[in-house]
Amino acid sequence: MSKKILIIGSGIAGISSSLKLKSFGLESTIVDKGNFIGGRVGTRDIKSKDNSDYFFHGAQFFTAKSYSFQKIVQNGINEGYIKEYGKFSPPRYRGLKSMRDFLINLSNKLNIIQNVKVTHLKPHNEKISVLEDRSSIWQTYDAVISTLPAPQNLVLLKKFLTLKKTLKTASYDSCIALMFSFDKKPNNIPFFFDYYNQQSILSWMAAGSNLCFWTAHTKGDFSNKNINKDKILLKDQIFQEIEKAIYQLEPNIKINFHSLHIWKYAKVKKVCSGPQIDPKFPIAIAGDFMVGANVESAFSSGEKAAELIRERLG
Ligand SMILES: Cc1cc2nc3c(=O)[nH]c(=O)nc-3n(C[C@H](O)[C@H](O)[C@H](O)COP(=O)(O)OP(=O)(O)OC[C@H]3O[C@@H](n4cnc5c(N)ncnc54)[C@H](O)[C@@H]3O)c2cc1C
Q1: How far is the centre of ligand 1, averaged over its atoms, from the C-alpha of 40 (Å)?
Q2: What is the Å distance from ligand 1's center to 58 Cα?
Q3: For residue 24, what is the domain's CATH number?
């Protein structure tokens, strides 16, 4: 009889878990509390009469250092939904249309349900019982992979003591993303600004789907201290930094504020140590917190969780 497997979270870790299970002949269902797939591979759409433009307010690009992710990226390039981003070593990539579009294409054969929030998980005989916010009835699954950021996963998995211990060892930096646009295409502005090794509250600022739509990200130290600050003050402080950088290169361009997005658990500062699968029950965890603070690491942790679940199910 076919197994009933649930994956919580439609970010890259959830998608890679489901793809890997599929490669073993195991079907799974992904549920996510958000409106869109992708999690922190986030895209904000600006629809106009004739087309759409995109801010990339989460991950800006991804690398593909491992053989397994290189295969995914090469396939996306061949099928026309991934492109190389700039000329970096090692190479960086983006979705051709948008970052989210990369995940939409990658997951097009998977069973994904958005707007479903899992609220409780508990062991049940040799299986896992799950409660979500659309129903008051517990559903039982043969296996579960949970891919929420570690602090949220910790709350959900409080009945699974070994995984709880693993999850407690992770820590994150927050990040504040400010989206802004120009009325016309700039002439003297590069497509990204890297502030990682410079003195600035910003860490990175880059164009989205074209040179008119931009996102600036703040550094971890600044973000951790300021995520609860008054939004207007925060916006003004970040916007001033953006103006300084842009006006030096193009003094006459008009900069329009679009919106602010706060990522509480943005980038993993310390990865987890400890088992990824419960010693007794068929439940595993996956996400960037198991391997490293980036898209590719989240992908590989999803594959690993799927392998562990396959072994457990025999
Ligand atoms: C601002 C920012 C910039 C970044 N820049 C880069 C970059 O340039 N390059 C790079 O490689 N990486 C970057 N990263 C990191 C990268 O985005 C993450 O490492 C990766 O996307 C994490 O994927 P994930 O699947 O582990 O988690 P997530 O993408 O967070 O997925 C978890 C999913 O779980 C869902 N969820 C949460 N709670 C529940 C619940 N109770 N029930 C159901 N669903 C739930 C969420 O909605 C979410 O979709 C950046 C991250 C941020 C925030």
Answers
A1: 3
A2: 8
A3: 3.50.50.60
Task: For residue 140, give the H/E element and its range.
Answer: strand 139-141
> Which residues sit with their C-beta closer than 6 Å to ligand 1?
8-14, 31-34, 39-41, 58-62, 117-118, 147-149, 152, 175, 177, 217, 263, 266-267, 287-288, 293-295, 298
Domain count, the chain: 2
Q: 50-77 pLDDT, tens per residue?
A: 788 999 999 999 999 999 999 999 999 9
Per DSSP, helices labelled H in the chain are 12-23, 67-79, 99-106, 150-156, 161-168, 220-226, 231-249, 288-291, 295-313
Question: Which atom of ligand 1 is found nearest the CA of 293?
Answer: 19
Share above pLDDT 70 across residues of the chain, in percent, rounded to a whole number: 100
**Same-domain check for residues 264 and 275:** no
User: Could you tell me if residue 47 is inside a domain?
Assistant: no
Residues 111 and 210 in one domain: no
Q: Please indicate, yes or no, if residue 187 is contained in any of the structural domains.
A: yes
Atom of ligand 1 nearest to the CA of 42: 17
Helices (H) and strands (E) in the chain, counts: 9, 18
CA nearest neighbour of 189 among 264, 286, 282, 255: 255
15 CA distance to ligand 1 centroid (A)? 12
- The minimum-distance atom of ligand 1 relative to the CA of 217 is 1
179-230 residue pLDDT tens: 999 999 999 999 999 998 899 999 999 999 999 999 999 999 999 999 999 9
How far, in Å, is the centroid of ligand 1 from the Cα of 254?
32
Mean of the pLDDT values across residues 35-58?
91
Tell which atom from ligand 1 comes closest to the C-alpha of 119.
41
Domain containing residue 202: CATH number: 3.90.660.10
* Residue at a domain's end among 231, 248, 268: 268
Q: The tokens of 194 are what?
A: 């890297």
Q: How many angstroms separate the alpha carbon of residue 188 from the centre of ligand 1?
A: 33
Token duo for residue 82 = 């991934």
- How far is C-alpha 165 from the chain's CA centre? 23
